[in-house]
Description:
Number of strands of chain B: 14
Number of helices of chain B: 9
Strand order of the largest sheet of chain A: 1-11-7-4-2-12-13-14
Number of domains of chain B: 1
CATH architecture of chain B: 3-Layer(aba) Sandwich
Shape of chain A: globular
Distance between the termini of chain A: 35 Å
Order of helices and strands of chain A: EHEHHEEEEHEEEEEHEHEHHEHE
Strand content of chain A: 25-35%
Shape of chain B: globular
Distance between the termini of chain B: 37 Å
Oligomer: heterodimer
Radius of gyration of chain B: 19 Å
Number of helices of chain A: 9
Amino acid sequence: MSSKKSFHDSAPSLFIQSGWDKSQLFGLNASRDARHFVLRGTGGCALMEPEDSVGMRNLELALSGRDRAGRQWRKRKRFSGFCLFGGTRMVMKHDPKIIVPGITEVFPAIQRFCPDAVTLGVIAKVGHMRYTEHGLVIHDEPDKPFVTIVHPTQTSSVILQPSADMQASWDDEYQECIRICDALRQSQWQGLLVAYNGGGVTEKEILSWAKLGKMDPFWRVLLVRGSGRKPDEYASDREWLAEHPTVHVCENDLDDMRAKLSELGAIVDPEEA
Amino acid sequence: MSKENTLRPRVQVDERGCLLFVVSHGQAAPAAFTNLVTCDRGELKAAREVVRIAGGCKHFSQDLLDKLIPYFVDAFRLVDADGKTTREFRGTAFSGGTANVDGEGGLKNDMVTNVPAHLAAAYPCIAMSTTPRTGDMALEQKHGGLVVDLYGGRIDFRQQAALVYQQDPATVLDWDGDLALYLTLMEGWQMAGFKTAIIAMNGGDVTRDEIYGALKRRIPVIAVEGSLRETDAFIAAFRDGDWSKTASEMREKLAGKKKDTKPADDAVAAAKAVLEKADRNLVSIVPINDSKALREALVSRGFLS
């Protein structure tokens, strides 16, 4: 049999979960050779203001051990472990080469700088899927100038649907991520939710993790203050923060982000990875 | 208490004993089970290797039965010219997980499913299993062991983890009921970068399905020649194109009951279809009782690295 590599050999695997069915093969990504740390990244996508999206680069640089010029320092701490994110990309309808900035661009962007990172997309099928030469479209709103496709850069992803013809809700993504993280928590992994910008759905996820954090320190949250919308709201609520001791705050600044991610164990020395 | 009941794994995962999981059809095996393949073996890092030991021991002579465990234990280590161990198995040995008992309630070692427990006692590796629930389970009255079939078969509690797989709490499965689950696990670990293989020895219809099911999923098969039944039948088919022994037990049983033997023909046809498309490099054939040959086959597949 030929050992010549083909275009699809390094393509991400894609699984579909219908109803209560769980993909064993997607779950077995947790057996990959990476540190037992799960980073759940969530936040703003289509509704993020342009001025807020600029700061996402701080998160990308902090996670990948790069400086402001984008250069990676070999001995600088960087992310290693498993990253759970929304697994999608938004592209403009009139020109699919134009990518709309969103939190889901951060984690694929760090992949080439973080060889010890496994990026896993959890994607709610919120529209009927269509396959195009520009990717698998999972959401399209006629009044919006962009469509949402499955992100081409990730290790593996799973699409969630209630059934073949029914559509999921945006909530399904974070709820499935909590379920996955809970299973990993039981295997003594470390975990962290990072929230950058984001609205109602992100808020529900922040509140869920924060509430769970009162029962188990696995459920830690890092809110990026200055990223906009719900993380800013909760990062400024001192009373709420005092009631939820596993919630941490960092500024939307590369150095502060890096310090906090290091303190929380998300970024480590390359040898430690 | 029988000496065999005191066999303990070198790597302790849970101080209470063998972890037990019950999973119904449609549920995924929990991460607490599947991630055991990655847990460090004390201070030693886990080897990313999973081997499934499949088959049986029917019609084995007492001599072969007595040599069964030492054969496997010896194969799962590297040795120098003087026979001294230079590397112990640090991966995961996976099997059907059941054990027979003797009159005193002690576990016997007369099945290939007992091999992982012995490997786990000898080496810093993990022994785990999947078992189909083929009858209502019971807790044995004197010793409390978990009885998982109607013949008194127990879960081999000398492993670190066992998973019982059922259709649902009210419905049992057939003897091949866990096949799709465990082959999916093997495939998934392989996708996650593990070296995987199935060692097939002896065995009937289920073992035949395991061999061809593995090849279909591109999981290597190490077939032990001289172990009789479906493993030898596979070797004859693979090496010599001789399909006469494949499904022969099924055929004889059906003929003996004066039933249509078409299911046996179908089984042969299905096996042929798989072998036609299979990568022949996935198959190793080793002679029985030659632990050196089995060791070499394992090493050639990336084990004991």
